Amino acid sequence: MTRREKLEKIIIGTLLESNEMRNYFDDCRCLSSDMFLDDTNRRIFGYVREMNLKGKVCTDPCSILDEYGEAVVDIAADMCDVCTDYSFIHLKMEYNERHFLASLEYGTEQLRTDVKFEDYVKSFIKLVYDEDKKRTDGAKNAAA
After folding, report:
1. Residue 59 CB partners (closer than 8 Å, separation 6+)
2. Helical H runs in 54-143?
3. What values do phi and psi take at 94, rounded to 5?
4. Closest CA to 82 of 43, 125, 131, 35
5. What is the pLDDT of residues 63-97, one digit of tens each?
6. Overall number of domains in the chain
7. Which pLDDT tens digit goes with each residue over 98-130?
8. pTM
């Protein structure tokens, strides 16, 4: 899996955790559906975006199913998988837990990550921009 594919999954997985307490879409308003290479991720992002435009910030898989019904049944399992396996919240918790357990085992100071979800969004934007620039530069050089 490429870095871009992983970042896509982390962004989508985290968006599927949004609720009234924390709307992760606020960090993703500068993204567009066409930035996602994976068709399912692109669709999910589109649904999350539409729901947010309607003022619905709770965009977990069940809420998306309630909102769109049969139109999203084919990706229901994918939404649950990406939410469970790639949510920034869960990944950060697992990382910190592993380092905590290692610090207990080896008697070292616990190192906690201070990475934020918006750091992943920024990295994703940079990757998309860099890839688009390479593609554009390559096309210009090929034409010359």
Report:
1. 15, 16, 18, 25, 47, 48, 51, 52
2. 61-68, 76-86, 88-106, 117-143
3. -65, -40
4. 43
5. 999 999 999 999 999 999 999 999 999 999 998 89
6. 1
7. 888 888 888 888 777 889 999 999 999 999 999
8. 0.88
Nearest by Cα to 14 from 48, 40, 55, 38? 48
- Provide the 10 A C-beta neighbour count for residue 70: 7
Side chain identity, residue 8: E
CATH number at residue 94: 1.10.860.10
Question: CA dist 45 to 103, 137, 139, Å?
Answer: 38, 28, 29
Confidence label for 138 from pLDDT (cuts 50, 70 and 90): low
> What's the one-letter identity of residue 19?
N
Domain that holds residue 91: 3-143
